[in-house]
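I hope you will forgive my troubling you with a question about protein structure. Here, with my thanks, is the record as I have it:
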Amino acid sequence: MKFLHTSDWHLGRAFHRVNLLGAQAAFVDHLVETVRAHEVDAVLVAGDVYDRAVPPLPAVELYDRALHRLAELRVPTVMISGNHDSARRLGVGAGLIGRAGIHLRTDPAGCADPVVLADVHGDVALYGLPYLEPALVKDQFSTQRVSHEAVLGAAMDRIRADLATRPPGTRSVVLAHAFVTGGQASDSERDISVGGVEAVPASVFDGVDYAALGHLHGCQTINERVRYSGSPLAYSFSEADHRKTMWLIELGARGEIVTAERIDTPVPRALARLRGRLDDLLSDPAHAVHEDAWVEATLTDPVRPDDPMARLATRFPYTLTLAFDPEGRREETGASYAQRLRGRTDQQIAEDFVAHVRGGGLPDEAERAVLQGAFDEVRADDSVRENHR
């Protein structure tokens, strides 16, 4: 049986204020075409369908179109809620939608109620395990500890118990949304740590043939049977080196992984993280390849250049973020604020502040004169007020 494993669509999310709805629609087109071209038997969507609990209307409309198109293919789809989704909202109408072959699994109570498909080798039980917030479900799963490992382990115990009641040889797949030990995170995932312990061991999925995971945005293999598909689009510059894909998994007659192929997803625009002095970034021919990319620039000039964003845009028109990390930045001494100020004049304190906020380089003579003039005016105003008391 052949599965297409995807997750973390984050419909409605922007990339540094760039609207990605068109790119997300292109991904849905690609998903539908991949299902058709590869004759996929089932689609697995492992959570974070939306980017937030109450998504914008255009995102809901895109989700609605995606469901209709998947239903028209008559290829079963199993979809779980992630930590960004509102499980209650995503699950509205699940019973009716299920009749069209779109199986929404958003209620933890139904984690051991699988979607059962069949091929020439027998049954495959697909268990949808939505994101479990430990504090909210610990009583439901009768766990003593408030942790992801405890509640996910209890849910998997229920799944294994149900699987044991099924005909011998029944193969099994679990969809889950969690941070599994060994996975590599990026900057765009929302923290799901509880009590400082967020990761769960891969062994929690022992006993099933394949675990289709969501939450981490990089496509990765924890082990042969436990994999993340990653997000279909990049949602932070920390994903600049990611290859965005879906997993095409073929499960054999005995539950073995026959093939695991990465299917590339459309890239709306490349990402580039550039670092250096402004003049070097603008002149270095090695950066020509990044001129049409979304750019994150970190300038290392000792003194902040004039109009850096406008100047960067002349070569890199899609620059989205700008940061400063000056060469030779002075390290903090560890002294208290009061100790650092002791014995220094107002003028010296102001000059140090200017150097700090612009990342290095004390004010020049003209700037010092402006500061001095400001202090002189303040002192003059104070003197006038004092004389009128």
In short: Residues 330-389 form one domain. Residues 365-387 form the longest helix (23 residues). The chain has three domains: 2-264, 270-328, 330-389. The radius of gyration is 27 Å.
